[in-house]
Amino acid sequence: MIDDRPFSDKVEAHEAPKMPAEYQSLLKRVLRIQADCEIGGPHLYVGEWLLAAPSADDQWMLAKVAGEEIDHFRKINRLLNELGDDASELMYVEKSRRDLEAFRQAMPTWADVAAFGFLIDRVGQYQLEEFVGCSYLPLDRALPKILSEEKTHVGYGHVKLRDMVRTEEGRAAAQAAIDRWYPRGLDMFGRSNSRRAARYRYWGLKRRANETARAEYVAEVTPLIEGLGLAVPDAASDRHFV
Questions:
Q1: Which long-range contacts (CB under 8 A, 24 or more apart) does 187-190 make?
Q2: CA angle at 60 for the pair 58 and 64, rounded to the nearest 5°
Q3: What's the rounded Cα separation, in Å, for the pair 10 and 204?
Q4: Average pLDDT of the chain, as a whole number
Q5: How far apart are CA 69 and CA 114, in angstroms?
Q6: What is the pLDDT of residue 237?
Q7: Under the phi-then-psi rule, with left for phi > 0, alpha for psi from -120 to 50, and beta for the rest, what region is 190?
Q8: What structural domains and CATH numbers belong to the chain?
Q9: DSSP reduced 3-state for 136
Q10: Which of 93, 144, 153, 156 has the fewest C-beta atoms under 10 angstroms from its C-beta?
């Protein structure tokens, strides 16, 4: 008789090789995707915007954000190393080879930098929150500092958009950036009713269904976007997550 009850044990690194092949495969997969997301952000904005940000404070903050994201990559890759895997090649790949569409984009305006932090880093926060209390203890232990820093990145993006919408020109730029990044943020949650997502939940590696996390994200960001005096894009009709 097959036991369909969700896995509820906690696994240390030295125990992972003894786990079923599906658990090991899903754990390595989700860590590689997370590593790609962590290093993908700096590749979008460091080259073009680090020394072109509008003030010394913004240059410092962008450098801080990029440094923390690279550190997040280091920490996630160390977890992979403990499992006999390595994602170091992701530090150097072209944008076109990133796992998620959001990390293959151009970032043409400073408003894009702000909207990326406000929307895409917020998705990153949601992704990391999936692992809180997860079955793989080394990942769970790595989360508190990473999540704290991710929330700072999100807050910075929000502040920059809030500053921008005070002028008509800035509001137009902010709206255009929100229109660009909002649908890509929704896509990052993955397909609704994904079989793989269900297996992540079964093994205790994630907490929510993709559609549940996406709905919670929409419920959170909608009043925040409207609070900036901006319109929430109607993004669902041409996306691939349904």
A1: 187/100, 187/101, 187/102, 187/239, 187/240, 187/241, 188/100, 188/102, 188/120, 188/123, 188/127, 189/123, 189/126, 189/213, 189/214, 189/217, 189/241, 190/241
A2: 115
A3: 9
A4: 94
A5: 16
A6: 46
A7: left
A8: 19-227 (1.20.1260.10)
A9: strand
A10: 144
| CB burial of residue 128 (10 Å; 0-12, 13-18, 19+) | buried
| Overall pTM > 0.85 | yes
Q: Dump pLDDT digits (tens) for 98-142.
A: 988 999 999 999 999 999 999 999 999 999 999 999 999 999 999
Would you say 70 and 87 are in contact if contact means Cβ atoms under 8 Å apart?
A: no
CB of 117 closer than 8 Å to CB of 224: no
The Cα–Cα gap between 238 and 242 comes to: 10
Distance (Å, whole) CA 58 – CA 20 = 47
Q: Are 36 and 98 in contact (CB under 8 A)?
A: yes
pLDDT tens, position by position, 28-57: 999 999 999 999 999 999 999 999 999 999
Phi, psi of 16 (to 5 degrees): -60, -40
Q: What is the C-alpha to C-alpha distance for residues 133 and 160, in angstroms, rounded to an integer? A: 32
